[in-house]
Amino acid sequence: MNLAERIDAQRDQHLAELCEFLRIPSVSAKSEHKPDVERAARWVADNLAKAGFKSVEIIPTGLHPLVYAESLEAPGKPTILFYGHYDVQPAEPLDLWTTPAFEPTVRDGNLFARGTADDKGQVHIHLKAFESLRAMNGGLGINVKVLIEGEEEVGSVSLWDYVQKNREKLKADALVVSDTSMLAKGVPSITYGLRGLNYYQIELTGPVRDLHSGVYGGAVPNPLTILSELFAKLHDKNFRIAIPGFYDGVVKLSAAERKALNSLPWKKKDFERAVGAAGYDGEKGFSTVERLWTRPTLEINGMWGGYQGEGAKTVIPSKAHAKFSTRLVPHQDPHKIAKLVEKHVRKLLPKSVHCKFEVLSTGKPWSASFQAPIFKKAQSALEKGFGKRAVFIREGGSIPFVTQMHDTFQVPCVLIGFGLPDENAHAPDEHIALENYFGGIKSIAHFYADLATL
Ligand code: BES
Ligand code: MN
Ligand code: MN
Q1: Which end of the chain is more exposed for a tag (fewer CB within 10 A), N or C?
Q2: Which of 152, 20, 180 is CA-nearest to residue 89?
Q3: Is 0.70 topped by the overall pTM?
């Protein structure tokens, strides 16, 4: 039996184990799930031990534990650091799930549950690849360090501090991550660029308390009106962000990269089917792929205030709130951008409201060369797992840890994603295609096996 045959023979077993992992509601954002998050950390640690890692640690942090394991039994061979996350996004709104979020179910070749694509399913691909390799070859053939966190979906609050204090321990020749997507079904992909993310929250206060809109309306500031006017001014008619200095430092794509990205087998039809909107908007002068992967954005994530209950209530609210974010691209500096955004917001607001402005998190963009030999290995491993040549893509999502690691260790970061853009990550009915899960295990097992000769 060869590696691929062993993986095929274990399909049912692998899937059953993944379902066990997915049944743990490890929602990092909600304190009521803290015990579940801890249970998930223990599940990962136990399964790393079962996959043959002799040294496995559960590291407590101020919030959710990190899981670390290493297998350093191949002196003179390369060392990789594999990173992923075992926490998931909240499952709400629950009534929009076809089957419950934490009761994994197979339908039409897809496995549905929160965390299937982001990121438990993808972490599990690596666990099963390690296990299969060890079972077949008696060892991994390379040195492996594994770091799986439980706070990715809430901004990796404790991770960076741990990395800074454990630089020697985490040192590796390459970082390997599976927390991204494939360009499309049947198109294995390696991601070489991600956007950065800054997240903001503002609170506007007008009157000291809610007011009768008949008694006071017409002579007082309405913070919700002012909030709407503010956001209406943050884009111009070409959908560019109207904040002075916002685009300073944004790298212009080379003609070669622009051509490469626009000739990928990316289908506008698939994109539009996934979105389902009546029409599309975006920055003038750029293709959709360029807008999604290489251009910065400003998006309102939520706005609230005033009366939202049943029927009518004639009120002028005292307060208005909004959460919004900016996606960043090389070489925008997240801290500089946060300052520019705050300065401009304050400038646009009238004196009649008080503004509390908070920056909830910042994260750098990332884009890197993929010339190092390890990328060829990744490409040929994906070809073995999927029977197709892998393409190099950028993506619009953010994994701040990748940038931090790249900056700190200056090593190749190999992002091999097995999700698909329409698999509803962060939304109801999240799923992963079984062919990508199983193809992923094969590809990753071949990849690690092949790294012994890097
Ligand atoms: N796995 C995603 C990041 C991602 C999604 C990368 C799609 C590439 C394509 C990650 O779990 C995530 O959701 N990141 C957040 C940011 C984080 C700081 C909360 C994001 O991108 O919004
Ligand atoms: Mn993720
Ligand atoms: Mn996510």
Answers
A1: N
A2: 152
A3: yes
In this structure, which residues have their CB less than 5 angstroms from ion ligand 3? 118
Core vs surface per residue 16-55: b (16+ CB within 10 A) or e: ebbbebbbbbbbbeeeebeebbbebbebbbebbeebbbee
- Which domain-ending residue is among 331, 361, 391? 361
Among 345, 361, 377, where does a domain finish? Answer: 361
- Domain range for 46 is 3-194+365-451
Residues 39 and 117: their CA atoms lie apart, in Å, by 20
Give residue-wise pLDDT tens across range 357-397. Answer: 999 999 999 999 999 999 999 999 999 999 999 999 999 99
Q: Which residues contact 394 (CB under 8 A, 6 or more apart)?
A: 191, 192, 193, 194, 261, 293, 294, 367
pLDDT computed for residue 167 by the predictor = 96
Q: What is the CATH number of the domain that holds 127?
A: 3.40.630.10
**Which residues belong to the active site?**
87, 152
Q: Does one domain contain both 325 and 418?
A: no
What's the 121 CA to ligand 3 centre distance in angstroms? 12
Is the CB of 197 within 6 Å of ligand 1? yes
Token pair belonging to 108: 């039409």
Residue 142 and residue 231 in one domain: no
Whether 357 and 377 map to the same domain: the answer is: no
3-class SS of residue 63:
coil
Which pLDDT value is given to residue 164? Answer: 94
Which residue in this structure is represented by tokens 């200056």? 410
Can you tell me which atom of ligand 1 is nearest the CA of 400?
A: 18
What was the pLDDT predicted at 224? 98
Residues 239-288 have pLDDT tens digits of 999 999 999 999 999 999 999 999 999 999 999 999 999 999 999 999 99
**Residue 211 sits in the same domain as residue 345:** yes
Q: How many domains does the chain have?
A: 2
